[in-house]
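A reminder before we start the practical. When you read a complex entry, don't treat the lines as separate problems. The point of joint prediction is that each chain is placed relative to the others, so the output describes one connected object in space. Small molecules and nucleic acid strands, if listed, are placed in the same frame. In the example below there are two entries. Take a minute to note the order of the lines before looking further.
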Amino acid sequence: MMSAAPSPQTPDVEPVVRTCLVDVLSLEPERVAAMDRSTPLFGALPELDSMAVAGLLTELEDRLDILIDDDEVDGDIFADLGSLIDFAADKAAA
Amino acid sequence: MSAPRLSLESAGPHRLPSLRQGPGDIPALIVVQPLYEEQNRCRRFLVQLGAALAAHGIPTTVPDLPRSGDSPDIGPFDLRVAKDALRRLADAEATPGILAMRGGALLAAPLARGQISIAPVWAGDRLLRDLVRSHAVAEKERTGAAFGMAEAQRTWREGGDLWLSGHPVSAAAAETLSASVSPCGEVLEAPELGLPPLWRQAEPVEAGEAAARAAERVARWLAEARGS
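Here is the predicted structure of the whole assembly.
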């Protein structure tokens, strides 16, 4: 799922997603700030293993007050930063 | 400030490897660690917190409850057994209170003692869901097969244990965990301490400043509880 254009909901959600990446993956804030929507995540960030994926989803649930069904989770969500932001924004808007 | 001391505490039939810090001549605050994999991830922070509390003159003991950490009692972790050990230890220590972190807050429910909790897990079913989710993501990556709570429940109904994040979880343990809620008492949430979610991080990060802030809050809480 490549996402060229940001969805309308992203302004509120994007900072939360970026903060979750910093907190859960122990990434430097500057590194996450330098990412753009096309920055690849899963397979490109060694910190993002399966345990981290689960933790990231749970933190997003807690911080955005959303519920993510495990059946919805696949690799496309974590393809790049834009796809993760869009997924979270769609859940937050639901 | 005294150095950390390792001891083997007796709590009825339970033998609990424990880490003590602070003065040794007064009852210690019992620190209840997070459960399952989160315990390993938060241990460094709890040692730092113990050192910071020792600087306030407050002794702590951090026990490895049965079937967790370095406990000689092996087997699937069981909240009921851990609660029994904690109750007996609290009585033997005449502890002034319980300091719990994350899922450790689920253990203190039957104790008629003061409790302060750091980033508590409010309901055990949430923690169980986290464990199953981690397993599900790993399974999907490893085999491509979907796995979820329905599959986990099926395994437990058939009498098997599930290995979730490296820990065996029996049907009885899952049921007890799922039904547990936390009394929590006084609550210190992570953001107010400037504490990152250590329990989700594979690599330990420095959280000494958050430990110092938590120690100040715990010391104040303890002083108020003692009426001083």
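Discuss with your neighbour: Residues 3 and 21 of chain B are 7 Å apart (CA to CA). What might explain this?
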